[in-house]
Amino acid sequence: MIVKRTEFLGFLDALKSGITTGGEMDQMANIQFTGVDMITYNEQIGILVPFEADFAASINHKDLVNIVSKLDAETFVMELSGNELSISTEDTKAGLLTTGTEEIQQSIDELIEQMPNEENNGEWLLLPENFSNGVGLCTPAAEKDLSKGILACLSAFDNKLVCSDNKRISVYEMSGSIDSEFLIRAGLVTNLTKLDLINFYPSNSWVHFATSDGIIFSVKRVSGDSLTMYAKLFADFKGISIDLPDGLKEIVGAASSMVADDDTKDMRIYNEGKDLICASSNERGWIERSVKANFSKKEKLDITVSSNHLNWVLDLPDIKMTLGENSSLFESGNFKHIIQHKGN
Fold first, then answer.
1. pLDDT mean over 318-323
2. 322-342: per-residue pLDDT in tens?
3. Structural domain count of the chain
4. Cβ(152)–Cβ(184) under 8 Å?
5. Which candidate among 23, 181, 215, 236 keeps its CA 20 to 30 Å from the CA of 295?
6. Average of pLDDT values for 5-31?
7. Mean pLDDT estimate for the chain
8. Residues 89 and 154 placed together within one structural domain of the fold
9. pLDDT tens digit string along 247-300?
10. Residues 305-320, mean pLDDT to the nearest whole number
């Protein structure tokens, strides 16, 4: 069969999140060609890409990418002969050995059975059009340590997406509500932001997401309560509005050069008169940078926050800040973000 190289590489890129290397099951490093689609699966993520082929085989994903990416033609011939998949152009010939699918096939079959079909009477549900944007904004606030349970998850309910690591909270209001709430591991879904998602379907063990061109991205569900209690904190937030001065992002970045060499990377931000000052230090020195602001005589700002968290939130467009007693609220369009002050 003749294959378009650029298009095929796009399919391989979409499939890579479902790949696991160095594990006990070699099949999790492979692409499964079924004849009607390509599938990758690693127990936490399953990805299905429609792809008609005149063969069925299991091929190592990395090897396939390495060969196809280096071909010198925009089309190539791919065909199965015995236990070898051959790839050829006018100037290049290569072969990859196939492997059996016995180890993983049952798991893939069970995953596909949980997708919407006539037997389970499942129907794809409409996904709010700005869901992917919300995923990209919320997931940086999730806990990276998986032992923290739901704090390592993205929570979707009503028209909201929520993530929190108990030091910061992100909530995003989608353009519409979802019909079924779910929890999924935040670290697994970053690639969803690259896909044009239009539908989703929550099954017993998975949440399946579908694109307009038939790609299905399935993520294992996590048991636990949704993060609704964190969303309520935004409605109850009290504080004073702070006018962020032009150039704040630049001085925060400059002052970050002396933050401590650890994960906290604390920075102090305070005002003296109408000057806003950002200060950081480590065991070898310190630095302060200031910018003219428009503080009134009654306004007093003196907080210590994570430099990394602050740098990230200041990249958002049209950001607004509200200073609370123990935390600060930042708002940008449909997105709201609370950063806890250090020492509180």
1. 91
2. 988 889 999 999 999 999 888
3. 3
4. no
5. 236
6. 84
7. 89
8. no
9. 888 888 888 877 755 555 788 888 888 888 988 887 888 888 888 887 776 778
10. 87
pLDDT exceeds 70 at position 205: yes
Q: Tell me which residue of 324, 260, 273, 330 sits closest to 299, measured CA to CA.
A: 273
Question: Roughly what angle, to the nearest 10 degrees, separates helices 5-15 and 61-69?
Answer: 150
Residue 119 lies in a domain: no
Please name the residue that has the structure tokens 């302060």. Answer: 288
Contact 173, 332 (CB under 8 A): no
What percent of the chain lies above the pLDDT cut of 70? 96
Closest CA to 195 of 224, 166, 217, 170: 217
CATH number of the CATH domain containing 26: 3.10.150.10
The residue written with tokens 């997708």 in the block is 115
Residue 37 lies in a domain: yes
Query: What CA–CA distance (Å, rounded) separates 336 from 205?
Result: 30
Yes or no: say if 235 and 250 are a contact pair by the CB < 8 Å rule: no
Residues 107 and 129 in one domain: no
For the whole model, what pTM was predicted? 0.86
Query: Looking at residue 344, what is its pLDDT?
Result: 46
Whether residue 310 sits in one domain with residue 256: yes
Read off the pLDDT of residues 59-87 as tens digits, 9 standing for 90 and up.
999 999 999 999 989 999 999 999 999 99
